[in-house]
Amino acid sequence: MHVAREGEKQVGRFWSLLFLMVPVLGVLVFVFAASPDSKPFLDHWLPLNINEQGYVIDDLFMFILYLTGVILIVTGVVLFRFLWKYDAGRNSEPVKYVHGSHTLEIIWSILPAITLLFIAIYQMDAWAEHKMRRPLLEDGSLKPALAQVTARQFEWRIRYAGPDEQIGTPDDIHVVNELHVPVDEDVVLQIQSEDVLHSFFLPNLRIKQDLVPGMRQFTWFHANQGGIYDLVCAELCGWGHYKMRGRLVVESREDFDAWLSEMAAEQERTQPEPAADGEDE
Amino acid sequence: MRTRIHHLRTWQLTLLFGMLLGVSSGCFSPPADFQFNWVYLAVQEQQLGTPDDPAAFSDEQRRNVAEILQATFGTPQDPRLPGGLEDANPEDLVNLYGLRLAAGPVGHDKVTREPRGLYRQHCAHCHGVTGDGMGPTAGFLNPYPRDYRPGMYKFKLTKSTQKPSKADLLRTLREGIPGTAMPSFLVLPEDELSALVDYVIYLSLRGEVERELISLLSGLEEGALLLDPRQKSTDSEGYGESTALVKESIQNVFMSWSISEPAVIPAPPAWWQTLNNEQLDYSSAEAVEVHDRGLALFRGKAGCISCHGETALGDGNVSNYDKWTEQMVDAKGRTEEDRLEPYRTTFQKYGALLPRPIRPRNLRQGVYRGGRRPIDLYHRISQGINGTPMPNQEQTLTAEEIWSLVFYVRSLPFEHASRPAGVRNLDRERPN
User: Which of A182, B221, B301, B354 has its CA 20 to 30 A from that of A56?
Assistant: First the structure.
């Protein structure tokens, strides 16, 4: 009410309102994005999780989101309160010089330190689940990789171990940009890069691992829902980064085996396809 | 307070000006255009005169060729196919619908939401708007991207020097070319892939017609135009003859695409099926026998070692040039700089990429550009690789011999390149 009358002085309080919009809009964006049928934000929340262990990542994400969200709101509101209260146009008192508060400094150093330490410990389980607890075979040995996925500018070259379950032998099956895996099974993949930094990203499985050339890594998951999902590169790897997408096909064991033997037969093809097919599928 | 507001205004004005500048530079950039084939023009000039004293076609002649070309094939925004050819129907070869999806700037049709500009979205930054293999990223790549204009393609299942089938080009798009910068476009929808194939063929047809027209210039009197509109009224008979000549060149190019047929691939001999199964063991007696047969051919009759080297590491003759670049180098030059002299003096100024010798494949890496299937490898050996020094051996080798070679080549990635005598001792057991 005062604001409207005072001409130029309103600018100060107007800016404090703008600052208030940061926590308000920040919260609204997340609320809209997370509610299932808010139109413009539709499908802008996390993609469907089909990995048994994926909840670990999601829980960690949500925990950190709530934590940082609360801090965002508190700091945003405090900032607004100070801007509003100490607007130059409404305060004639001279500025008081304050040297500082030792107690306050200790509080705002120790509180974040404890929080960060808590996150560091809280996330260890998620880290172990995705980086250390590789699935085992019945005899207790490490489960071998189903396939080797090699990222290169700008595609995914995939090499299935084949019947002998060993990569690098004549019975390997080579495909490109199409990763098929069986559903309801532990799947281990060996992932690597041929040229530059890439990142192996399966959003629906909550798997994202940077690939460093020369470094051989393993990743694993347990998909529990069939379908066709994205396989993308999540590290800007060059001018064709946007081209670097493939398909993840999660299917039943029978379908997977049938597909793999079809690919193996195609790889051994010695005669042209029958002309009647025209352009093949 | 007043100064603060004043600053705010300056700042806003700067922003506004910057935005306007950005918008206007987008609006006034010229539409993409096909580039003229200067390199081929210069080659023809050299052939008509001598390399040291080349003939010179006039700007008017060149513009005349470009005009005929534009009238026949349109522009990158509005591609067109020639009509009125007697023995060929261009639309059998190139689907007009596909052409529409692939041509023009990247975007969507306002009404149908069909994609537009697929070629520029996926291909042009390497292969160039003209399909000359000289897009902005081309110079960073080794090997360079394919120049479609001569209409030569390496990886196909048609006969030796014939054109590829649409299925061949589609396969290259889906599988990519391992060992090169050509990635796989497998996840693109079917109709977009076949639209791209149509557009690539269109660019080839256009490039080949351009070359034909440029070579027709050599047969003309000095300075005469290929199709002179002024002649139309003064000498209608002569004009009719010129028109027929141009039409014939266009038609020949279209015909060459319609007569390609798949090469014959004889079924492999009985031992192929026995050996190539899940239990394939390259150290078994039967496998060693075929392997040694292949090795003997590799080193002897088939002559593979001259380029691929004794150990198949691709270290034989490494100073050959392929058909796309050989016109820009002097193959007889003794040093590399000697060989590159024609490029430096003539072709470099036309923006042509620095010619590089073609590397014979290292067969021990297990990376097969044209595909790893036996049918692909058989084809590469039997029909050769178009545009490269890899020769057609259909007449010199029997089917059985080629299959032995295929078997041998497929075994190479799983074999040590050499077993020096001293190393053999490592296999021995430790004495008790």
Answer: A182
